[in-house]
Amino acid sequence: MTNQNVIVSDPRSGFDSSVFSFSPAVPGPLPPPGRFIAVPAKKSFKNIESAAGDHRITALLDSMRASSPPRRSSETENLKSWIVHHPSALDMFEEIISASKGKQIIMFLDYDGTLSPIVDDPDKAFMTAEMREAVRDTAKYFPTAIVSGRCRAKVFNFVKLSELYYAGSHGMDIKAPAKGRKHRNGNNQTVLCQPAREFLPMIDEVYKSLVEKTKSIPGAKVENNKFCLSVHFRRVEEKRWTELAEQVKSVTKEYPKLRLTQGRKVLEIRPSIKWDKGKALEFLLESLGYANSNDVLPIYIGDDRTDEDAFKVLRDRGQGFGILVSKAPKETNASYSLQEPLEVMYFLNRLVEWKRSSLQRYQRK
Ligand SMILES: O=P(O)(O)OC[C@H]1O[C@H](O[C@H]2O[C@H](CO)[C@@H](O)[C@H](O)[C@H]2O)[C@H](O)[C@@H](O)[C@@H]1O
């Protein structure tokens, strides 16, 4: 028996995270005690799990609302104590540098909300020329990967840097830069990893159904991210969210091999395989020759729940640093924080400056 349509919350992915699973879902271990400060509690795991019938839609709606909760004055206080536990990566720069001694830094960067600001229209989430320059410089000194929920081609069109690794579709489509070729597919293109290939026809079918079902809801947008789909509701009036949630559920309930997760004002539909941004990070480390190595310092910067899988991998490996981009306190497996994409750019530039000057010092010797 499957737990089709049973809704469980995923303690791995942040305080307001819910995974709407259509197949048995196994929540990962909770983070070690004492690591996190208290953050506003959401619906408890039990409450959500025991929901049935229409309540499932209610739980989905609760989670949709939680994806952008209104600011409260108490949050300033919360932020102050949260920052003690997740200090700014800019303030901790020297510590990060000293941890990298004798190690190769590898940079992993999420796209939306990390390299580009969150905007209403997903097709207009451009990064600035300055940010592109910062990423280009970073890749000159450190192997650099973009890890995004978007399909690889689309995120490449935004970033436009061929020297990077790209892991699109939440890590389900990984490609190396031309000069780092490892594997080739039949078309002579470099593809490192596509663990959800068999789902392509299903994803296409679901995409068409979702477009059809949601077309009467103004502002709703279904984005085809090749191995997964996004249903955006940022521009949908809140009074129509119930209708949207029902329409999405009416499609996904027919596909027990897919699961429904949630990002920032977006419902994401993806294959129920054990693959996520954390697995992509591990795969890339292995491809780069650092599978069981101590000579590496991975740094992963991201803003979303899906990035928590990568933060957790780093924490479990006891290696490198996760950096959460957020202005608000969130339960996270990341060690450090940055407030917004601009600070991400400052951080990257500082890293590049440090590397340049240490190389110059070395050359002068
Ligand atoms: O892993 P990411 O690179 O962060 O991708 C996650 C989703 O990002 C995009 O949606 C988000 O950004 C949009 C543009 O700022 C915003 O309008 C939307 O509300 C956000 O959820 C992207 O469009 C999705 O497909 C990705 O899954």
Number of structural domains = 2
Query: What Rg do the Cα atoms give?
Result: 20 Å
Spell out which ligands are present. the ligand O=P(O)(O)OC[C@H]1O[C@H](O[C@H]2O[C@H](CO)[C@@H](O)[C@H](O)[C@H]2O)[C@H](O)[C@@H](O)[C@@H]1O
Averaged pLDDT, please?
83
Order of helices and strands, N to C?
Answer: EEHHHHEHEHEEHEEHEEHEHEEH
Number of helices: 11
Structure classification: alpha/beta
The global form is globular
Largest sheet: 7 strands, mixed
The CA-CA distance between the termini, in Å, is 68 Å
**CATH class division of the largest domain:** Alpha Beta
Strand content: 15-25%
Strand order of the largest sheet: 6-5-4-3-11-12-13
Low-confidence stretches: 1-53, 181-189
Q: Which architecture name of the largest domain does CATH use?
A: 3-Layer(aba) Sandwich
CATH topological fold name of the largest domain? Rossmann fold
What is the total tally of β strands?
A: 13
CATH superfamily of the largest domain: HAD superfamily/HAD-like
User: Which range best describes the helical content: under 10%, 10-25%, 25-40%, 40-55%, 55-70% or over 70%?
Assistant: 25-40%
Catalytic activity: alpha,alpha-trehalose 6-phosphate + H2O = alpha,alpha-trehalose + phosphate
Organism: Nicotiana attenuata (Coyote tobacco)
GO molecular function: trehalose-phosphatase activity
InterPro entries: HAD-like_sf, HAD-SF_hydro_IIB, HAD_sf, OTSB-like, Trehalose_PPase
Describe the structure.
The chain folds into two domains: 79-182 and 189-195 and 275-364, HAD superfamily/HAD-like (Rossmann fold), CATH 3.40.50.1000; 198-271, Trehalose-6-phosphate phosphatase related protein, domain 2 (Alpha-Beta Plaits, 2-Layer Sandwich). Helix content is 36%, strand content 15%. It is built from eleven helices and 13 strands. It has helices at residues 45-49, 54-66, 74-85, 93-99, 129-141, 152-159, 200-214, 241-252, 277-287, 308-317, 341-364; strands at residues 7-8, 19-20, 104-109, 144-147, 165-168, 173-175, 221-224, 229-232, 258-263, 266-271, 296-302, 321-325, 336-338. The strands form two sheets. Strands 6-5-4-3-11-12-13 form a seven-stranded mixed β-sheet, with helices on both faces. A six-stranded antiparallel β-sheet has the order 1-2-9-10-8-7.
